[in-house]
Structure formats: C-alpha cells, structure tokens
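Whiteboard transcription, Tuesday session. T.W. wrote the structure tokens on the left side:
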C-alpha cells in the first residue's frame, strides 16, 4: 500500500439483503400518482415510486446484474437474484438530452450492490434545459406471488432501505 492509498476514499456500501431495495438518491420519495408523466403516474410499466433528488448521485436500488444501461445514462435496469426486474429512470423525457449532464460509473453486464454509485447527474443543468428531475424506480418485471411493499413516503437518504 502506497502513501496515496491512504487518501483514497473507499466507497462503503450498506449491507443490504438480496430481497430489499434502497433509495436511489437522497430526496423526497413520492407516490406514482404525483409524478408528472402519465406512463409513470399510471404505473403502466409496473409498480412505481418517484424521488425528487436533492443530490447528484444515483445508486443501485438493489443487488443484482446491471442488464441494461442506456448509452445516454438516463435509465438503467437491474435484475435481482430472484428474477425481479427493476428499472431506474432519471428525469422525465431526459433521453432527449442525449447524455448531456449524465456520467456513468458502471457498465452493462456488471454485478452491482445496493447503494453502489451508478451515475452522477448534473441536475442543475437538467433543470436549466427545462426537464423535470423526478427519478422513478419501477418494479418492471415482478416475480409471481411476491409482494412489493414500499415504506412510507417522505424524505429519504441515499441507500436507505425502502422495500
């Protein structure tokens, strides 16, 4: 170990079971009906919650395989060990930004842990460009007979267990 290794900040991840989901960012967790996009508010893609971020870091909501990472960074999907598919969509219509303001840290196909940094988003730039920054977490592919019960809505810290 070299001298500089002492100064590197090691990311410490919460110890989260394979069954749980965590908050993808710090901010306000809101019900689907309060999301200003019909696809998400009517839960057309699956059971949905939203976050109004107060920080620029987006983390993995669960342990699993990062099956999809959009090249623009605006969305990604993780397959949990039990088969559940979880979609994270950052902002509304942000695909139109073509990756501007998004920096990815993990590539498609990687194994990820709940709370691991996936993206940094310049939410000020996203808002300045006229986009809503509400970030959605969707149980896009539920497993039969599994109940997905989220904790009460309100302020959450990044990596706090929500399911």
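and on the right, the sequence the group agreed on:
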């Amino acid at each position: 170990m070299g001298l500089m290794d002492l100064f590197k900040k090691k990311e410490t991840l919460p110890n989260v079971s394979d069954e749980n989901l965590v908050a993808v960012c710090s901010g306000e967790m809101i019900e689907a009906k309060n999301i200003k996009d019909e696809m998400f508010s009517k839960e057309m893609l699956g059971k949905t919650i939203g976050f109004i971020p107060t920080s620029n870091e987006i983390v993995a909501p669960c342990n699993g395989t990062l099956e999809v990472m959009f090249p623009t960074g605006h969305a990604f999907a993780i397959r949990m060990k039990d088969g559940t598919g979880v979609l994270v969509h950052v902002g509304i219509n942000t695909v139109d930004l073509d990756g501007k303001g998004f920096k990815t840290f993990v590539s498609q196909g990687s194994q990820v842990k709940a709370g691991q940094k996936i993206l940094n988003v310049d939410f000020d730039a996203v808002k300045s460009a006229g986009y809503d920054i509400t970030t959605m977490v969707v149980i896009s592919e539920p497993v039969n007979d599994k109940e997905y019960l989220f904790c009460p809505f309100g302020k959450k810290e990044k990596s706090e267990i929500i399911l």
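Someone added at the bottom: Confidence is low (pLDDT under 50) at residues 3-8.
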